[in-house]
Structures are given as structure tokens and as C-alpha cells.
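The instructor's notes for this session suggest beginning with a concrete chain rather than abstract definitions. Hand out the sequence below and ask the class to guess, before any prediction is shown, which regions might be ordered.
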Amino acid sequence: MTKLLDLRTVGQLRASGCKVLSVKDEVRKNLVTKLRSKEQIFSGIIGYDETVIPDLCNAILSRHDIILLGLRGQAKSRILRLLTDLLDEHVPILKGSEINDNPFAPASKYGVDMLREHGDNAEIEWIGRDRRYGEKLATPDVTIADLIGDIDPIKAASQRLHYAHEGIIHFGIIPRTNRGIFAINELPDLQPRIQVGLFNVMQEKDIQIRGFPIRIPLDLMIVYSANPEDYTNRGNLITPLKDRIGSQIHTHYPRTLEIGMQITAQEAWVKRDGTPPKILYFLRQIIEQTAVEARRSEFVDQKSGVSTRLTISFLENLVSNGERRLCITGETELMPRVSDLFAALSAVTGKIELVHEGEQEGVANVAKGLLGKAIKAAFLSYFPDPLASMKKGENHYRKVTAWFKNDRKIDLSDVMTASDYVHALNRVDGLKEVTLQFLPGAKEMTPAQLAIGMEFVLEGLHQNSMLSRDELGPVRTYSDMLNRMFSNISKREDYDEEEEEN
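After discussion, reveal the predicted structure:
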């Protein structure tokens, strides 16, 4: 390829035997090469190997234009941008062409005139993949001029050209992406009259400007992304345009918790000062389970979806709260705890759209509820069900719950030093033994890591209604459930008596 890049004229290019393929043939050729050599086709895309990627390959092999249909946070935009990896590294164009004219078959008047005037001596240049990809976010204010182009009256006046002359056109982003891949994100948000303007580009592969008899054949692969039509009330995808799109491919959220965790681990920024934190596996599991709970919650608008960005931001906030603790305590080992999950909930509240019932509940309460369900699910995946154990007469948590009798309680704060944190949890009889017995890998953990597992047990017992928990600022207090209930009843009776006296 290095020798080809040295070619500088159309004649030299022709003599070299270089063939210029259409963009869809080029992408198809490179995909076939990757498939035969068993190369990874879309790097960084996890969980689509058996669903989305085979459909994409079929569409490309069929030389189709494509639409990716799915909810927010399903890697649609990333896939569109990764399609450029299937383009040749460099391709030749006529030098100075605004629309990347093919040296052997120019589409613009500029290119045709250049070949007519200079013939095989016409100069060429080589462009990379970055200049062959165009992307536009569909918004209601997008115009045909933005996409296709418009007549420039200043050019017409200065060059004394009539309005049907191609030389006065100011090209839009689509013709400037000629011989490349053009993407429109969130297609339904594009006004219907603008969607109609794409018909010619899709079918006849040419553009027209303001009704003047200017027709420029384009070589394009057009790809779109969209949410399902019932997701947005801002607009819809018109059926004639949808009919012109060769393949419609549905994306989806991670099918398993493990796949979701892989995606989150790949995308989240967790290395602080170049050092990765020590995040216990069950904390990652809880974060991912929170998104799973949100995607089936009656309080969350399921048409809107719950993006994978929720878990990414959640994990980053979890680590950041641990980092904040280090700054306060002066310690050096970054090790997130269960209490950090609750301090990191701001990453959840901004990522969920609530239905009316959820609005009534309040976004903070909904987020805490989702996290609580996630902790309970993760807890029951390792530890015996406390209620089921009691019914069977195998109460593994008897010592733990019994310790909280007689008004005993334990206060945990997300800014406690590691030594205070370990000491506080070790006070609870039976807690360490239960953790060592059921939490995988607990026997190999350091005392600080084991303490995090012990806090996990306390929170799991609370989520299973075995312990009470109160929050006052950063302090979380675990105590006996029955004492708390009787205390609340007593306070209520005292309040009623005061009301009667008044």
C-alpha cells in the first residue's frame, strides 16, 4: 500500500492496476477477509456475538443500508462508528474535490472538468477512514441544506453563474461523505419532510438541490440508529423511508449478569492515579443487578429503557466515594465498601425515567429500592435464605441477630478508617463465621476485605427483614428489628396521648 500512496496522478493510478470499488463492495470485501481469517469484526462490543453481529454481517454482505433499532445505551452509535474499520485504510480521490470524487468516475462537475482538462495528468490524493465517515444527530432543527446542501447566492454573484449551475452549490454533510459511510443518529427525531428528502439518496443514490436540474450520483453506505417508534413522542420514522432501508437490526441489553459486568468493567474509569482499586466481585454484581431491577421495575418507564451508562457511572461513583474516604482518612488502599453503594446513588437517579407512580414515590426512594432489591438478590445467590432457614430449623444467622438484642447496635460510616471499620464489624457475634462459611473466597481475604463481606451480610439481613437499619447523614445504624418496631409503636402511642391532652 505504501507504493500506491506514492501515486500522484490518475495516469499513474490507472497504470498500477488499482481498482476503485464502490463503498459497499469495499466494506463487503473487507468483511469477507475478516470472516475468513476469523478476526474480531467489532472490537469492544460485548454480548452481541450471537445476535446483533451476525445480523450486521448479513446486511453488509447483502450490500444493504442499515438501521439499528433499540433502547438507549445499547451501543448503537459505537457500532455505527466501528463500521469504518471495514473501509480500506486509504483510497484515492481527485485532488481538491469537495465530495471525494472517484478518479475514474467523478460525480461532481469539478471532477468531470478536471479530468476533461488534464486527463491522466489530473492530480489525486489519498484520504483515510476518518474523512470517509459522516454523522449527524437528528434534531427537529436539521434542514435539507444541512444534509444535502443549498445554493450559495454569494458564489453565484461573485462568479456570475446562474442558479442551475453546479458551481454555486454549498454541499451538505451527505455529499461531503461521498464514497464513505454516513450515519444519522435518532432518525425518528428528524422531521418527516426532511426524511422525505432522503428518498433519492437511499434509492437513486443522487441528490437534487432546490428543484434545479442538478443531479449528482453518490456512492454511499447509509446507516441509522433509532429508538423503537413508541419510545418517543417527538416523531416517528416514516414508512416509505423505512421501506428503503435494507436491513433493520434490533439491539438489546446484556442477556446475562456476567456480560453486563464485562461491559461495565471495560467502560468504567476506575483506575485512580494509575492504580486499580480492589473491588470485590459481589459489589460489581450488585451494581449490575441494580440495572436489571430497574429494567423490570413498575416505577421505571420501560419504553425509555435503562442505559448501560447507569452501571458505568454507578461503578465510577462507587470508586470515587472510596477515593474520597482515603483523602479524609489519609489511608492509601482504595477498597470500596457496601456503604459506598448508597453514597453512589446519584449515578442511578439521573439515569432512570419514572412513570407516574414512580414520580409519586420519588426518584431517590425508587433508586434506594432498586439497590435494595439488587443487594437482596446478590445476597441470596451466596447465602441461605434467612426466612427459609428459620422454617427448616437451620437458622444460620441466630448468633448474629441475637447479638442485636438488648438494644445493641452497630454504627457504620462511609468515612470510617479501615481499622475502625474492621473493629466495629468484628464486635457482632457470629458475623465473621457466617461470612467465612458462605461467601466464596472469604478465607483468602484480608481482614479489610472480609469486613466488607461482613457488612454485606448485615445489609442482606436487613433487606430480608431480619435487621433494622437507620440512616442519619453518612452513618448507617443496624439494630434489632423487633425492638425498632416496638419503639415505633411506643412513640406513636405517646404522640397520640399528647394529641388527646392538647
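Then share the key points. The chain has a mean pLDDT of 89. The chain has three domains: 2-250, 271-326+336-376, 383-502.
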